[in-house]
Design goal:
binds pyridoxal-5'-phosphate; 3 domains; Aspartate Aminotransferase, domain 2; Aspartate Aminotransferase, domain 1; disordered N terminus; seven-stranded mixed sheet
Length: 411
């Protein structure tokens, strides 16, 4: 008889109840066993209910009433709490319906969606934009629609799970190249292949915070006649004078082969996603991207709030400058520690083992700071870390407090 200790929803095994798996294991038993194994390996993840505190700073209260300063949010510019967004959403909430109630092509499109898509396209200087329910859906839909089974996808080793899943969905041959290693990528591109080549990567990498070398990627894509799909989830709003992301940062124009995907749940402070490109591409995606065709349109109030966020993001130079100062302050404070090189608000403090990352997060937590441990499969095995996410809503004192808490672990 196998005895398995299940710690569901709590990593602390002392609180868990012993659970016995009968000879004929049911599916429930198998799931319980899988949970126990994850817990044992320090890989169990938990939902934590946090109540947002009033005000502009990223402050939350946990279920026990403890006040927490968060370094976990992707709200890089602090727009999620901006009153203009709330006002815009409230005005839209006054409309007769809350949910759009239908897919965009079956009556779910509202004036707010059309206005937002036009404003995003004008901001990026592209012909058209297509809104999606989320970045995850956008990546699934775009890769599934554009990449044929006989094509080949070259994906950066550190690319986001949604890009991996989209690549798998396409049925194309998938090859991973070493992170930002363009010599390796070129080696792969050189090999004979049937079908088209697609390079898939991120403008700013979600876990390491470093940048893809866009000018070199564009040059490679051009030379090998490859499509380039750039996920700008963490780049839009963060990079560039007007927050236009990697192209603006590197001062290079996206050519006809380039496709950019942005999410709205990060620097925009709202929710949803979009794909930017030519009118033909967008019209084609409308017909062929299944996660677009078969999803309910975003609530119009969210589109209205995003429309209110766009000019703030675009004119957010002061916020971006403040963020840069915070990055420098944090890195000065972390000197001598093993942090990943990054000039963006995503700062990774490498800790290696899952246990070390969990212990560091727990210690910060005792000091009133929320920064959960990031572990595999979100990051490679042996590279568990604290992913410190900075926001323009943080103050210099917030950074000092974090550094102080990291220096003096709380027992
Ligand atoms: C690089 C990247 N792409 C896509 C997504 C998915 O975006 P969403 O949260 O809007 O589904 C994320 C989410 O964290 C991401 O980091």
């Amino acid at each position: 008889m196998v005895v398995i200790v299940v710690a569901c929803g709590a990593v602390d095994k002392a609180e868990s109840l012993p659970y016995t798996v009968p000879m004929q294991a049911t599916r429930e038993d198998e799931w319980a066993q899988a949970l126990a194994e994850r817990s044992e390996a320090g890989l169990l993840r938990q939902t934590e209910v946090l109540q947002a505190e009033p005000g502009l700073r990223p402050l939350y209260r946990d279920a026990s009433g403890n006040l927490l300063l968060s370094f976990a949010s992707n709200d890089y510019l602090g727009l999620a709490r901006h009153p203009a967004l709330r006002r815009a959403a409230q005005d839209s909430f006054a409309a007769p319906e809350l949910g759009a109630g239908a897919a965009p092509l079956l009556g779910g499109e509202r004036p707010q969606h059309a206005e937002l898509a036009a404003a995003l396209a004008a901001w990026l200087g592209v012909e058209a934009v297509l809104l999606f329910g989320s970045g995850y859906l956008a990546n699934l839909g775009v890769l599934g629609a554009l990449v044929a089974a006989q094509d080949q996808i070259f994906l950066d080793r550190l690319a986001h799970a949604s890009l991996i899943d989209g690549a798998r969905l396409s049925g194309a041959r998938l090859q991973r190249f070493r992170h930002n290693d363009l010599a390796h990528l070129e080696n792969l591109l050189r090999r004979p292949r049937s079908g088209r080549a697609w390079i898939v990567t991120e403008g700013v990498f979600s876990m390491d915070g470093d940048l893809a070398p866009l000018p070199d990627l564009l040059e490679l894509a051009q030379r090998y006649d490859a499509g380039l799909l750039l996920d700008e989830a963490h780049a839009f709003g963060v990079l560039g004078e007007e927050g236009r992301g990697s192209c603006e940062h590197w001062q290079c124009a996206a050519n006809g082969l380039t496709l950019r995907i942005g999410t709205l749940g990060k620097a925009f402070g709202t929710y949803g996603a979009f794909v930017a490109g030519s009118t033909t591409l967008i019209c084609y995606l409308q017909q062929a991207a299944r996660s677009y065709l078969f999803h309910t349109a975003l609530p119009a109030a969210l589109a209205a709030a995003t429309l209110a966020a766009l000019p703030l993001l675009r004119r957010g130079k002061d916020r971006r400058q403040h963020l840069q100062l915070l990055v420098q302050r944090l890195q000065a404070g972390l000197a001598g520690r093993s942090y990943l090189p990054s000039s963006t608000p995503i700062q990774g403090l490498l800790l290696g083992s899952n246990e070390a990352a969990l212990a560091a997060a727990a210690s910060l937590r005792r000091a009133g700071i929320y920064c959960p441990a990031v572990r595999p499969p979100t990051v490679p095995k042996g590279q568990a870390r604290l992913r410190i996410s900075l926001s323009a809503a943080h103050s210099a004192e917030d950074i000092d407090r974090l550094v102080h808490a990291l220096e003096r672990p709380c027992a």
